[in-house]
Amino acid sequence: MAQDYRVTLKDWIRQATGTQDSDEFEQTGITVLSISPFPEAIILAHPPENSEVFILAIQVDALDADVHPTLLRNVLQLNCDPDLLPGAFALEPQEQVVLYRWVVDLPGMDETSLQNVVGNFAVLAGKALDAYRDALPVAAAPGAEPFGQAAGALRA
Fold first, then answer.
1. 0.70 cut: is pTM over it?
2. Are 114 and 139 in contact (CB under 8 A)?
């Protein structure tokens, strides 16, 4: 018989946080965790259909409707940074947010492993926040051309 990962996660969340609101998690698959001293809320999401993974995420930034191309390029470069793996940045245009997320396998995990994973994610998410802030494009003067590009030249 297959393990019901949603119920298992709900039980682990209840034991780790001491809260009784984990029943909502069983229905929605989403809960918010607070890990001291990490100041950001950590979102734990479990996809439907008894998925064998769960996702940890933090909201890094709000996203403008017109995303600056430099921001897109910088976020892609951050996703290649080995210091930030196995996490990755994700731009969610419909929700207009930038997330940093980490997908974690459930098979073989126990409650202690979950607590360690969440703690490790909090540390890595702090590094990701700093890296993202360093990667934000500097506002250019109106009409300014990117460095090294002639006026009117097309970018590849």
1. yes
2. no
